[in-house]
Amino acid sequence: MTDNTPVRRADPLLSTLARTGEPDQSAAGTPDRVGVDAQAVALVAVFTALLVAAAVVPGIPVGGLGVPITLQTLAVMLTGLVLGPLRAGLAVLLYLLLGFVGLPVFSRGQSGLQVLSGPTAGYLLSFLLAAVVVGLAARAVLRHTRRTLWVPLLVTASFVTTLAVVHVLGIAGMMVNLRLPLSAAVSADLPFLPGDLLKDVVAVVAAVAVHRAFPDVLARAAKRRPTTP
């Protein structure tokens, strides 16, 4: 009589394959994680370069306090909306560190820690928090809402972030470094508000276009389907 022991030993493996529909992928897990990490590093580098490029574009002077209108807020919001909180925070942090160590990557070619004593200090520091906050909002919207709601919800989140983070910290920075009273700091900040809100809309439209064309840039949570017996 033929020995059927090898067939019985293989039964557990065959039953596992039948239940899962695919072989064990544990060995392939490491290359996948390396690929994702490489993609994240590349995206952080690209958006850091975008932040630098936005600062290189000459700003429009407003008032006599030395705070120009630039494309930096547009780049910051776009970074958060596209990359999500972690990678956007890393991109903005890298940008700030490059400027603080002496590279002329801030507006008007400024660099070094001395910018923290100037009128733009609050705005610069707000960029990191703004990118993280709007990145959190973008991740929540893209994961949990329909595509038709992306633009209005992201515009709302961007407006709130711009007002509550960028402009509040910018006003606080002018009050501390320029010793301005609150009313004077708010008056100095107001000319930037309409342009920043317009830039928010542009950033949202661009970010939604990116996510629709490349849905894996900010990974969406996969919806679990009920398994059938």
UniProtKB/TrEMBL annotation:
Family in the record: Belongs to the BioY family.
Keywords: Membrane, Transmembrane, Transmembrane helix
Keyword GTP-binding: no
InterPro entries: BioY (IPR003784)
Domain of life where this protein originates: Bacteria
Signal peptide range: none
TM region(s), chain numbering: 40-62, 121-142, 149-177
Protein name: Biotin transporter
